[in-house]
Write a structure and sequence with these properties.
By secondary structure, the chain is an alpha+beta fold. It contains 18 helices and 17 strands. The strands form 4 sheets. It has a 7-stranded mixed sheet with strand order 13-12-11-14-15-17-16, with helices on both faces. It has a 6-stranded antiparallel sheet with strand order 1-2-3-4-6-5. α3 (104-121) runs antiparallel to α4, α11 runs parallel beside α12 and α16 (403-412) packs parallel to α18.
């Protein structure tokens, strides 16, 4: 199961991952910076069989499955081993993200990787217990499968157990966006288990049922679920075995899904934000000064481990940050812009920048069981440096968030970094064309405190302002701050 935000349980330095409880045969722990997985006797036997296969060794070597090794229980903190028959140590993913924060092309590539792994596993006599999108994470623009505990020996005559989850968390969101032009992220964020076949059937009624992949994987799927609703899983499996269901049929289904997913695509409608770099009003001198300021601020930070670029747009400053940092999370609110950025990063093979889709005025909350199975963005995004460039006015004026709260929110991401954290923030003056445009849609006099002097006072209360730079155009100022205390 996917990593979330660690919750302490027992043993010094030991934390159980709240997102890993659904499979009782394994559990993920965090201990002293390590990611560990406990295996019960059945899962330990499955692991030994899996580790001996050629296909799994190849997937590990190619980086398509997260780095995994068996460890001696005596080498990890006391209390970790517990009742487990074996312990694995996993590669640590730089930043945990969730499918409702991915762009269309990211979700599609994640689905294709899942299918690729299965098409390698099935001929070798293995399958996966589930097909959840949450079993995948990212190294920058490279997807990686993280739920090693999901692999198990296949039983002849049985279908892929993960088909329903694959449809609900991967295929159906792709169908919704590719065929209907609706952003899938709100659907996945609202339901941790994804879109139900019955819901999809209502969306794809009439002639829509004949769109690619819908008739088989939505209408037929839902009909079969209704038909066998009262039959036990064992009875259904027995019927399939009696009917001659085979491993070859599973492979044929996987190949068909692979072809379907590859055919799905989404071409976004024209967007103001896609062309923002050309329409935002920056002069060449402004751009050059801003890029120098950001580069110098991060170079002085002593190579931060994690930088957040909030409002990343085309990724210009995320790329600058990546020259000076270990990892960059580039958050963009427009799904089309984030998707375009991902496709470019993927083509470049960039593994240090992770693009995410998120409305900064409504960031991902905690979700799932007890609200912690999926950690909130704020809980996950503890950074060493934050870039907030040309975003503050959109929150303060566009979304009516008070300036003090915007600053407190930005500095909250630096809480773990303390006084070595860096905030690079851009204040767009009231007379800037973009601010004038935002104010034109608001009642007159609604934002009397949106002034440069008031912003500097608020920032100065919270940070030592190391440097400020008015851009040559005269309507924007950059600040470099270090949190006080």
């Amino acid at each position: 199961m996917p990593p979330s935000v660690p919750t302490a349980v027992s043993g010094r330095g030991l934390a159980a991952d709240p997102g890993s409880f659904r499979d009782p045969t394994t559990r993920v722990f965090h201990a002293d910076g390590q990611v560990l997985r406990g295996l019960d006797p059945r899962a330990a036997a499955d692991w030994r069989a899996l580790a001996a296969t050629e296909f799994f060794s190849r997937l590990l070597a190619e980086g398509k499955v997260c780095g995994t090794e068996i460890v001696d229980p005596e080498s990890v903190p006391a209390g970790t081993a517990g009742r487990w028959a074996a312990l694995l140590r996993h590669e640590r993913i730089p930043f945990v993200s969730y499918p409702y924060e991915w762009s269309f092309a990211m979700l599609r590539d994640a689905a294709l990787l899942h299918l690729e792994l299965l098409q390698a596993a099935v001929p070798a006599g293995f399958t996966t217990k589930d097909g959840s999108a949450y079993n995948l994470q990212w190294r920058g623009s490279e997807p990686v499968f993280i739920d090693v505990g999901s692999f198990e020996p296949a039983r002849e005559g049985e279908p892929w157990a993960g088909y329903r989850q694959f449809c609900q968390t991967l295929l159906y969101p792709l169908l919704v966006q590719a065929h209907l032009g609706l952003d899938f992220q709100p659907w996945l964020r609202s339901r941790i288990d994804g879109l139900e076949p019955g819901q999809m059937r209502r969306l794809f009624g009439g002639i829509r049922r004949f769109r690619t992949g819908v008739l088989t994987h939505v209408h037929l799927h839902d009909s079969l679920q209704v038909r066998y609703a009262d039959a036990g899983t064992g009875a259904v499996r027995a019927q399939l075995r009696d009917a001659g269901f085979s491993r070859d049929l599973v492979l044929a289904m996987l190949r068909g899904l692979d072809r379907l997913v590859r055919r799905l695509d989404w071409r976004p409608p024209p967007s103001h934000w896609i062309e923002y770099r050309d329409t935002c009003g920056y002069t060449p001198a402004d751009r050059a000064a801003k890029e120098r300021f950001v580069g110098a601020a991060l170079a002085e930070a002593g190579r931060p481990n994690l930088v957040l670029d909030l409002g990343a747009n085309d990724g210009t400053y995320a790329r600058i940050a990546a020259r000076h940092a270990g990892y960059v999370v580039a958050v963009e609110g427009d799904p089309a812009v984030a998707d375009q950025l991902y496709r470019r990063l993927r083509a470049e093979g960039e593994r240090r920048i992770l693009p995410l889709v998120m409305d900064l005025a409504d960031p991902s909350p905690g979700g799932g069981w007890r609200g912690v199975e999926r950690g909130s963005f704020a809980a996950r995004a503890q950074a060493d440096a934050v870039l907030a460039l040309a975003v503050l006015h959109h929150l303060a004026i566009g979304r009516n968030v008070p300036l003090p709260e915007v600053l407190d929110w930005l500095l909250g991401f630096l809480g773990a970094a303390g006084p070595v954290g860096r905030l690079v923030v851009e204040f767009v003056h009231p007379d800037d064309p973009m601010t004038v445009r935002l104010l034109a849609n608001k009642p007159a006099g609604l934002f009397p405190d949106y002034r440069r002097d008031e912003f500097e006072r608020l920032l100065g209360e919270r940070c030592r302002i190391l440097r400020r730079l008015p851009l040559p155009s005269g309507t924007r100022t950059l600040y470099l701050g270090v949190p006080r205390g």
